[in-house]
Amino acid sequence: MLPAIPSKSNGAFKQVQLLHLVRFGETNKLVKDLSLGMKKKVALICALAVQPSVLILDEPTGGLDSDAQAELAEMLTQFISPSTMVICSTHDQTFLDSLPACRVISFPLEV
Fold first, then answer.
1. How far apart are CA 64 and CA 100, in angstroms?
2. Nearest Cα residue to 87 out of 53, 57, 52
């Protein structure tokens, strides 16, 4: 489990803490040279560092293995403020079930 970050952290400091806490070990690479999972992690860290009031995730688990999906769910659970609205578009019901959501709206595909 990842430790909590103090809420008084400013954006830049919080971003550095997030990078450290998620065991981001590839600091000598450009983002374009990272794996898909690491690219998604960097994007989420950047988004969370500014403490958004709304976070929109489009297929966040696409292309991730089960370990990376679990880590993504843990990051979202621990680092998103209770006042942040998260809008998530996904086909991955298991991922949705792992999040502490207040409301899930499902739109089943009708054929």
1. 20
2. 57
Does the pLDDT at position 32 exceed 80? yes
For residues 55 and 43, give the distance between their C-alpha atoms in angstroms, rounded to a whole number.
12
pTM over 0.90: no
Instruction: State how far the Cα of 74 lies from the Cα of 14, in Å rounded to an integer.
Output: 17
The helix or strand, by DSSP H or E, that contains position 56, with its residue range, turns out to be strand 54-58
Closest listed residue to residue 17, CA positions, set 27, 5, 7: 5
Enumerate residues 6+ apart whose C-beta is below 8 A from 108: none
What pLDDT was estimated at residue 63?
A: 87
- Using alpha carbons, select from 78, 65, 15, 71 the residue that is nearest to residue 36: 65
| Per-residue DSSP letter, 63 | T
